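Re-run with default settings, no changes from the original entry. Doing this only to confirm the output is reproducible before filing.
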Amino acid sequence: MLKSVFNRQKQHTSSSTRPFKEYYTEWFNTLKNNHLPLLRRSISGDSLTVLSTHVELLHQHFQSYYHTLDAAAITDPSQILNQDWRNSLEKPLIWISDLHPFIFTNLARSFLEDEDINETDDIDLDLSISPVSDRPWQIAMAWRNPSESLIRRMEEIECGLKSIVPTLNERLERAEGSFVDRVVGDWFSCKDRGDNKGKAVLGNDVKVYMEEFVSVFLYANRLRRSVLVDIISAASVYQAALFLEGLSMFLIGFRDHDLVNAVEHSKNFSFDHVKDHKEFCLSRCH
């Protein structure tokens, strides 16, 4: 009975709109094959205007992803609950059906802390220490000596997350607990009924839960979008460029075919293989 209820609920919420899985594949390929290469070329160039344009293009690419994800959740929340486009490396990074916002702040924080280490290790500011030698001086030094306002703003963003994330977790846990209590009791009382009334009762339980899940999910997405906006707004163009490059490479790295295949199919998987991909995916999260 429960299976038919969920299938019927999905039919009622589905429409002829494009499946989000197809959109994500196209979005990811555009990120990897178009926006990231363009950003990298502009990073190595000498035009601040071009760099600023490509920073904004990549930022809007991420924002458009979350707006489309919102629409998909409203249209058919079942495809957000069952994300079969995610691989086994990506799933541990997921919080309320998408990337945990702490990934964004941890990445930015790692840039700050990495430059603090470089500053203490190399006081003479020899320009030859640039991690990418063909990049302009402004890029190589972008995260050196960050402003007090940037550090203070990062602390404010992190403090806000530490307050909001537990609240959303609790709200979702209450919704799940309430759904389990209701659906078990309703299923037991209706399990021997042959009419559609039992299905209607269980269907209402599913509907109530889905509505609350979507509400929490949309709030979480607003949080993810706002964290990205706050970090990029607080950073300089050069800092934002490196941050978005790092975030893009992080996502691309976790979909690297060789790495995913090694993790999913080898019981004797060597973590030395992960180290080989660290530079590629810029896995800076703590």
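Residues 2-281 form one domain. The chain has eleven helices and two strands.
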